[in-house]
Amino acid sequence: MTTVDTNAARSSGGAGGNSLTYAIGLRCMRLALAAAAVIAAGYLMNNLFVWARDYPESWVMPISRYISAFFDWLGYKADFGLFTFRDLTRAVSQVLEWPLAFTEGLLVSGFGGVPLLPLPWVTVTLIFSLAGLLLGSWRLAAILLGCFTFLAVFGVWEPAMNTFSLVLVIVPFAALMGMAAGVVLAGAPRLERGLSPVLDVMQSTPHFAYLAPIVVLFGFGQVPALIATVIFAAPPMIRCTLVGLRSVSPELIECGRMAGCTKWQLLSKVRFPAAAATLLLGLNQVIMQTLAMVVIASLIGASGLGHDLLIALNSLKLGTALELGAAIVVLAVALDRLSLAASRYDPYKRGEQKRRRGILLFGVVLCAATVAAAPFADGLHLYPAAYTVTSAPFWDAVVIYVSDEWYDGLQAFKNFLLSYVLIPSRNALLWLPWPVVIALVAMTGYRIGGGKLAATVATLAAFPLITGFWVPTMITLYMIAMAVVVSILIGLPIGLLASRNERLSSFILLICDTLQTFPSFVYLIPVVMLFKVGDVAAITAVIAYATVPMIRYTNLGLRRVSAQTKEAAEAIGCTKRQLLWKVELPLALPEIMLGINQTIMMGLFMVAIAALVGTKDLGQQIARALSDGDTGRGLIAGLCIASLGITADRILRTWSRKRSEALGLTG
Amino acid sequence: MGNTAKISCRGLWKVFGPDPRGFLRQHGHTPGPGDYAATKHVGAVQDVSFDVLEGEILVIMGLSGSGKSTLIRCLTRLIEPTEGQLEFENRDLLQLSKREHIDLRRKKLGMVFQHFGLLPHRTTLENVAFPLEIQGVPQEERNACARKYLTLVGLDGKEDFYPRELSGGQKQRVGIARSLTTDPEIWFLDEPFSALDPLIRRELQDEFLKLQQSLRKTIIFITHDFSEALRLADRIAIMRDGRIVQLDTPEMIVARPADSYVAKFGADAPKEDVLSAGAIADPNLPDVLPAQHVRASQKLSEIIPQMLTDGESRVVLNRDNLPAGVLTKERLLSAVFRGN
Fold it and tell me: How many domains does chain B have?
């Protein structure tokens, strides 16, 4: 790559357009040669060695079986003398049941023993609007008012509150655990370096894969869902705590130490307050992850919006599903905006104390009034069913219309894609013998990052092979590759447009922000409406979910190109087109690469979930493992997805870092 | 200024790298530049010894990378020195337990930082009261104390302001007040005025001197600005590559620089304000002494006007009113305009 780059630069500098076409021609030739070499190697291997074409069953390390056996043992037989592991999990469940019973009682069911009703919907809505007013502005208050009224009016208040009561228990748990771990790791750099890869794996293993082991250990139900979510949502908090604590200026810490702070005083009086903004940002991430996971955890028995959505999807009630999806989105937007406002909230503003006291007083009075009045006025308490509206029939009609009118067109499009693009590329990938694939990965790693990177990525790529998940992994790879290519084709031009125009950019970024708050599950609904089930549907869902970072990073990368460099290029006499191709894009490329990396990571998450709409890849393995209670298979399939993600991540990140260093963009 | 040493350090080393102690042992405490490079060690402070006398302002002057920041952090043990002795009031600082050291910091040391180091989430008053809060002083008491020091630095009425609402000069006043609330015996100032613009810097230097006249602290003051060092110091230690190359009074640094490196700083100094008649007089007395005299301690700026008007030489009298040398007009002019 690099040699060709310098060639191109040198020759186009020398003799203008002709040599540029020459350079491109050279590059194409090299590519063609490489492709021919790969095909030839593949052909030879396939014909010469049976073991290269199909990885022999006997070479598979039965790790997944060991894991299943281990979890079975842990779940049913493990005995620590005084208590069994089962007792332990039961105890944990019971401890967690308490707060959950409380929030559920508060928001949904009321408390049976003492005749207490749950909080009236008006009160909950008021609390949130006032919180919005306190932490943000009138606008935020209005948005929150709108969101919660939406939930009531569309008749999904109860499942929404069910979901919310889970979130309410999980978020403090996950945040505190994450913070505690973050503090410990921040003080132990060696431990942190050792655990960092573990965090990487945890954060790149799809939601889905966490469910199977939890089911074996804790069974089905609310509490297991809760535990799975806590485990899933804590890592971002750990990361944010680490970043936050590290970003505290060393001078502040010295100031604290010189004042004679003990370790604890330093933490509580200096480091935490100074890192508050980052910590709150972490909290926001925890909330969003929690919501996304809680919805998916309905697969193992979490009640609420996700549960209802799953039922609606299974019975193909697409209108209802869409409405429930919208409810999830509304809840997500509300929680996201509120927690973001909290991270930006400045309690130290002049006059803020007075304002705060006013709002709190007003809020307490109003809430007390609504709670007191609720038993006497039905509408206050539960939103009157007679006034709920539903758009489900409308959407059902749309679905029917779409399938009546567009069916042929869509079907033809789908079939065309399948038979001329998707299936051939899938078959091509599957045809490639595994030694060739691994060699390709290793070579890429070597060219970009040297021997160490090559060893890392080759090991990662071999993981699916030796665990016996090669074929589903290749299918996942093909789906993600297809989706990422399309995402790039869509995201790059949009990001480019956004970087040219302020108003357009703020509009596009607003849409990106909103799209990113949608829990991944929601993306499946419209896709199923259009394409039913199968690969096309899954890939479309991945594209819809994963294009956002591409847009974001392209925009960011182009905007970060230094104004001075651009001015210099313009002064030399670059046309707009030349400026873009010769100055801006090359300088933005490292950032854009990070965007592609992010797109791949998000795509892999979606691929796993897309198993619900019928694919044959790793996601499907996880889904089946979940229904069969096959822990090992689910976990290993999840780790295979993680290994794909981390391979891409290592390669792209290294490239991006080296490139920015070469361009002098770092520091 | 008493002559007892408040702090004294001997053979202080701070080496960064994979194995600092082993590195020092291996090279017999005389590693050369090549040794550092070869083993990826960096000698931030190398074999530094000096005393800080009670009540003096000792300025440590050096360019960036000379090790002055590391040195002050070794003295406060914000950074653990690699080797050496460090005594405070004849107690070995490096042997103190963690608890004892925290106590020492709470009661006896105060520090001002280059970028102020104010806690962004606390008001001016709370920032100044912070060291007392750490010690568990009740709120009433510590706020009263903090108010007193805020008045001292001229920040009356700014108690409820947050750091970002203050100008740079005001922020450093808060930093100064905070470092004084515990009435420390030793006052560390780490480039306290470097982040301020020139006019404010000058103003704060003057106030700092005024404060010191009444407080009489033992002060270690870090700067990279030679003219600041001249203005403030009782003694200046000039650092280069982790070593102290000269430790002397401002006048002697300018009049008798230890090497060409020190001389370069002195070249641009306002010599008429720094040098005194005694430092530049010709000690070889002629047979006939000039009729008029000056005192050895008089600064040149006091002498110049008369000498340039009448053009006569002067005899320089020492403390005992005995002739210590002669000052000709030529000698005076060459001292002021050409260095030595």
Answer: 2
Distance (Å) from the C-alpha of residue A257 to the closest C-alpha of chain B?
A: 8
A269 interfacial to chain B (CB closer than 8 Å): yes
Tell whether B278 is covered by a domain. yes
Q: Which domain holds residue B299?
A: 272-337
Please list every residue in chain A whose beta carbon sits closer than 8 Å to the beta carbon of residue B107. 260
Subunit contact A254:B115, Cβ cutoff 8 A: no
Please list, in sequence order, all residues whose beta carbon lies within 8 angstroms of the beta carbon of residue A639, skipping any fewer than 6 positions away: A201, A205, A209, A463, A467
* Partner residues linked to B247 by β-bridges: B237
CA within 13 Å, CB half, B185: 12
Res A10: pLDDT: 42
Looking at the fold, whether B328 and B201 belong to one and the same domain comes out as no
Angstrom CA distances, B42 to A445, A502, B9, B321, stand at: 34, 48, 20, 52
Integer Cα distance of A357 and A556 in angstroms? 40
Residue A430 identity (one-letter amino acid): L
The rounded distance, in Å, linking the Cα atoms of A630 and A624 is 8
Residue with tokens 């320089």: B316
Q: Which residues of chain B have pLDDT under 70?
A: 1-2, 338-340
Instruction: Enumerate the β-bridge partners of residue B240.
Output: B243
Q: Which amino acid is at A153?
A: V
Matching residue, tokens 């870090």: B222
Q: Please state the CATH superfamily assignment of the domain spanning residues A65-118+154-345 in this structure.
A: MetI-like (1.10.3720.10)
Query: Is residue B143 in a domain?
Result: no
pLDDT digits (tens, 9 = 90+) for B15-35: 998 888 888 888 888 888 788
Q: What is the pTM of this model?
A: 0.79
In this structure, are residues A89 and A228 in contact, taking their beta carbons and an 8 Å threshold? no
Would you give the DSSP letter of residue A285? H
Residue that terminates a domain, selected from B269, B292, B316: B269
Cβ atoms within 10 Å, residue B290:
16
**Partners of B221 in the beta sheet?**
B59, B189
- Report whether A434 contacts A390 (CB < 8 A): no
Question: Token digits for A350?
Answer: 């002049």
CA–CA min distance B114, chain A (Å): 8
Contacts of A491 (CB under 8 A, 6+ apart): A547, A548, A549, A550, A551, A554, A595, A599
Nearest-angstrom CA–CA distance, B233 and A566: 49
The b-or-e profile of A407-422 (16+ CB within 10 A means b, else e) is eeebeeebeebeeeeb
CA distance B66 to A511: 52
Give the position of tokens 């108003």: A503
Residue A158 to residues A5, A152, A332, B189, Cα–Cα distance (Å): 60, 8, 16, 62
Q: How far apart are CA A393 and CA A318, in angstroms?
A: 9
Contact yes or no for B78 and A255 at CB 8 A: no
A348 touches chain B (CB under 8 A): yes
Distance CA A67, CA A74 (A): 10
**What is the Cα–Cα distance from B102 to A260, expressed in whole angstroms?**
5
For chain A, residues with pLDDT lower than 50 are 1-16, 667
Question: Dihedral sign, CA of B88, B90, B93, B96?
Answer: negative
Q: Residue A610: count other Cβ atoms within 10 Å of its Cβ.
A: 32
**Chains A–B, number of C-beta pairs less than 8 Å apart:** 60
For residue A285, CA distances in Å to A160, A290, A448 come to 20, 8, 32
* Binary contact (A276, B109; C-beta < 8 A): no
